[in-house]
Write a structure and sequence with these properties.
Chain lengths: ~325, ~325
């Protein structure tokens, strides 16, 4: 428990430092450009205002109307295709905001829709990701056999490298496609794909918003939807491989077992990640059996007969405080 | 494996149906209102255009300038406070888009920042969430003891209910606060908190964007940041409790062990969720020990001596294909 709290505290400090550093860098990169843009904009707007002689009130009204007109200029956002697009941005939590419910009823439905849809989507993409990883593992194994290796093994490192390559390829392919269809530069299209597939979804670049694509270009619409869903699968697979194991699961076992290591956790010093993934340092069999006995005692209400191996030998009271964060 | 693929297939069909239903409902709720707003906007803009006699080119220029001016009107977005706010929206994947990097270098840094920051944030919030769940469990246990229960137990149902209440309270408190500070209705503030804490982050409502709050109201700025981070902890805790167990983890064990159940998985029919969480249906101890032997054989290179219980008794070849999705 204490280790888990220490781990948590360390992570929190990490995040806060990360935010401070990020803030400083973004400030340095963007602040001056922001001032420049602001000055230029004010200049141009002043020119137009002088040219036409707007009243202050009309000036504000023009601005307001222009802002409200933006989604409309991109085409109908709430026909079926647009609504499907919007529904994707909700349950994947991308949330571009290119369109957002205007009616209060729409907002209410949106919240309930997200409430059920987001967990469903999380589970689905992790499930798909796990299947993708299994497929990649099989392919790598087959490839190694073809290369004539006698006892082919697919290590975690192999999988992570493969994962990185697939992610990079997915982003690059998407970038090429959207650069072509949207008329963006390759860099901006790559940025768009990255911001989309990480589900950040700023909305500064949004596909399907020019030339009324949602209504007029069904194949491109289908491609965009498929790209987002498949791309999220690829990213989900990578996260599943690399991050999921570090997520600390709440124990479900009540009382004493919960204060120990919870049901059948693979012990590893938390700060180092799962040691069972590293060859040469597996947790002992006797520790496993000890955990089993603890679990059996707390959940089945009995103590299994003494197992072979060093169960309990030298291990009085608490097992060593090693936990794998699932 | 086949069960896992079937599970995945079922989830995918589920998601597709969910998207179709959502699209239909959003279409029904928003489409007509959209037409109405569009007509009204066009009318007003036509009036103003007639009043001042814009050329078509100047009309488009006015629109463009108004759109670009929007973030500036909300105050300086890239000073330290604004950059910190932005950094939060990146690593939490909220991504309002109220501000987005204007420079290409800013975009590049943003991508690298997200690449490291997002997994770090995921792990941190899950870790915090697990600690919060542990605390809530202890409090509930203490409360039950105070109520005089002899053998107090905190069930999963207790925890889920407590989680729901804490989430609802968090949203309501945030709604009250932002309604007050931003001048929104309670409903719109609630909607803002919900969209923020689910990390959807449309950007239709964004705090700290009026009255140059980022520069002029440090206490309110601090409150907003804290609210987002603590709120995400609460949501993370709830997800940790309810969803994490359903996330299918990729197995790490190579070869044969990978095709079975992977290291020490608690067996449960996947579609039903973890049966070990339900009293009266724990997996057998003999099955556990069998899994242990399989793991030991594949990872340690030896077979532990025969354990007591029904190890191998009646279980030739593959263990029953039951897997708990972690």
């Amino acid at each position: 428990m204490r280790q888990q709290s220490a781990r948590t505290g360390a992570l929190v400090l990490c995040i806060l430092s990360y935010l401070l550093v990020g803030a400083a860098v973004f400030d340095a990169l963007e602040s001056e450009a922001e001032s420049g843009r602001k000055r230029l904009l004010a200049q141009k707007r002043a020119e137009l205002r002088r040219k036409y002689g707007f009243s202050a009130e009309d000036d504000r009204e023009l601005e307001r109307l222009a802002l409200q007109a933006e989604p409309h200029r991109a085409g109908r956002q709430w026909k079926f295709a647009g609504s499907f697009y919007f529904a994707i941005t909700v349950i994947t939590t991308i949330g571009y905001g290119h369109a957002a419910p205007g009616t209060d009823l729409g907002k209410v439905f949106c919240m309930f829709y997200a409430l059920l849809g987001i967990p469903l989507t999380l589970v689905t993409f992790q499930s798909l990701g796990e299947r993708l990883n299994a497929l990649v593992r099989r392919l790598l194994l087959a490839a190694k056999r073809c290369l004539g290796l006698r006892r082919p093994r697919v290590s975690t490192e192999n999988m992570v490298l493969a994962g990185l390559l697939v992610c990079a390829a997915t982003l690059a392919l998407g970038a090429a496609a959207f650069a072509h269809f949207e008329g963006w530069t390759f860099f901006h299209a790559y940025y768009y794909c990255f911001i989309t597939l990480t589900t950040i979804g700023f909305g500064d670049f949004v596909a399907l918003q020019s030339d009324e694509a949602l209504q007029r270009k069904p194949p491109y619409v289908a491609f965009s939807f498929l790209y987002i869903l498949l791309g999220l699968t690829v990213i989900g697979a990578f996260l599943n491989l690399v991050v999921l194991r570090f997520l600390a699961a709440s124990t479900d076992a009540p009382g004493r077992a919960a204060r120990r290591a919870g049901p059948l956790r693979l012990g590893a010093p938390e700060s180092r990640g799962p040691s069972w993934a590293r060859p040469g340092n597996p947790p002992s069999v006797s520790y496993r059996i000890h955990q089993l006995e603890v679990w059996a005692r707390d959940n089945l209400g009995f103590s299994p007969p003494a197992s072979p191996g060093a169960v309990g030998g030298g291990r009085a009271g608490r097992p060593p405080a090693r936990r794998k964060s699932i």
